[in-house]
Amino acid sequence: MPEPSTKPPFAVIGSVTISAEAFNQAVSMGVRQKFYHGAPPEAEVAKFQREIGNMLVDRVLLVQEAKKRGLKPNQELVQKTISEYDKRYGDSERYKANREVMIAPLIGEIEDRSLVDQLQAQVRKVDPPSVNEVKAFYNANPDKFTKPEEIEVSLILLKVDPSAGSEAWEKASQEANTIMEKLKGGAAFPELARIHSGDASAENGGKMDSLHKGTMATEAEEALAKIKPGEVTNPIMVLEGYAIFKLDKRTPPRKVSFEDARERATGLLQRQKSDNALTELKAKLRKNTTIRINEDYYKPLPK
User: Fold this and answer.
1) 147 pairs with which residues across the strands?
2) CA–CA dist 182, 198 (Å, integer)
3) Tell me, what DSSP letter sits at residue 208?
4) I want to staple 299 with a disulfide (CB 3.0 to 4.6 A). Which of 46, 85, 168, 293 is the partner?
5) Per residue in 37-73, pLDDT tens?
6) Would the pTM of this model clear 0.85, i.e. be above it?
């Protein structure tokens, strides 16, 4: 059996204590999951520690509330999880020798999670919003129901292997300038696209599918924003080579009608009401419970 901790607890919530070890373990696991690509900045760790701390406190409060409401852990889920552990580690001599000690905290964890899930499902079960509520939500959140600007463009792409030397890029640049001169002289963009473009759109005269903001390279979007329908951009260096774009059509942002947006607006408002109900419960539980957190375990936030 592990020795009792001599460190001050991370938090005391009513009559429940969260040990320093439990807090540090939760932070360590969370950091590995969230920052798996490398060591996170100190400032990010400091904020993340507080997120984990709040999550642990909320979980204790929700478990206590679930028990007050008479909810019971899902024993079927507990047994299923234990069976999976037995199947995975059953051949390990260490697991066999310490199974009861290792399984005990796992059972507590699963039971708590089951209680929290049941309580959250209960709290989130709110009445559907009325039509007037949905209309008010629709009117108050126009950005959620506005189709972004849409553009139709044609493309001539002079492909260059990204690993090619400067000579290949220079050759593509010269070819792009030659094509620009032809376009200025009245040559048809679709015809030049069929002859020169290395993009799949070439067989369609360079015409691409409709695009929204954020779906193209920044340089291309900035260049297209400066021209009118029917005009072409100067050659732009992109990852695949040199590109020349022709703006065929620009459709400005437009708000979707309430009838067309009604189903989505209802779903979004229902989710918001559900989230608010859970947030309000957590706030109420915090207000009615004595909570002491030892902030010495947090790294300082950046000033």
Assistant:
1) 254
2) 18
3) -
4) 46
5) 667 788 889 999 999 999 999 999 999 999 999 999 9
6) no
